[in-house]
Amino acid sequence: MIILNDNHPFLYNLLLKIYAHVFGTSDFVLRFFSTIWIVFGAIVSFTLLHKHGYKILALSYTPLFVLAPNTIYYAQECRNYAMILSLASIFCVLLYLVLESLHKKLSLKHPNRYFAGIFVCGSAMVLTHYYAYVFVFAAGVILLIESLRTKTHTLGLFVAFLCIGSIGIAWITFHHIVGGFLYRMDGAWVYEQSIWSLLFSIILSAFGKFGWVLVTISLLVCFIKYKPIDLCKEYKPLLYIVGLELFIVVGVFFGISQTMTPRYFMELYPLIYLFVATILSAFWVFFSKIQFLSRV
User: Fold this and answer.
1) How far apart are CA 213 and CA 223, in angstroms?
2) Does the pLDDT at position 64 exceed 80?
3) DSSP 191
4) Selection from 202, 221, 204, 223 nearest residue 212 by Cα
5) What three-state secondary structure class fits 112?
6) Position 35 in a domain
7) Whether the Cβ atoms of residue 162 and residue 204 lie closer than 8 Å to each other
8) How far is CA 146 from CA 98, 131, 160, in A?
9) Residue 161 pLDDT more than 90?
10) Tally of domains in the chain
11) pLDDT at 214 over 70
């Protein structure tokens, strides 16, 4: 009943209870559970990218993910945000690899394994935080549209996201019938500032103020020296997912519930990190070739 009376899905609380039963309930031990999740997400994400030949991208993405202010903060906080961020990182890397396959840049020997990974991570996210539903829905819509456009992996992606949605709907139905979840919406607090403030805060929180300055300068250098316009167009589905989720957030804010805060939408951050890392890694390859040719 404690889990059902919570305003979040059950998975994090259940895993934390099992972990605490084994390792104890001291403040350090409970906070370390979040650290484990961040390290797990970073290692799996790095391994997936590196294994598929994206070595420079792995070296670019992982520091962006691990050293982001929010990641560092959530890694020591005893709440479900580290778990959702870790799962989102793995989920987004899997989406990235599937997207590469859709564009014929990567051959997946066993594509069903990637769809299974998307299903597992997506299901775990929606069973950890309710606003993950929005992110998974946005990702599913964009990936399915892209798969229809390229006529590749449509059935596998459709089944994966359909199963995630079915699990999410089944849980929220059970949570409401048994725990009265929907009756508690907006009952405790709501976001009191404007929707524009919320959207700005969501994007700003990805890197923080100073982080965005460094990222912006780095991207400007890339665009001036390398001009990766075609590269940006190729990976625009990543930004489409971000844009669609923010659009849905506006609809939820005005039509359903204002119980939200920027940290509820952290699932977007790995997509932003991947997009930035892709441009930076492509520039690094380009710069390395120029350096090599200049020596010949």
Assistant:
1) 15
2) yes
3) -
4) 204
5) helix
6) yes
7) no
8) 10, 23, 15
9) yes
10) 1
11) yes
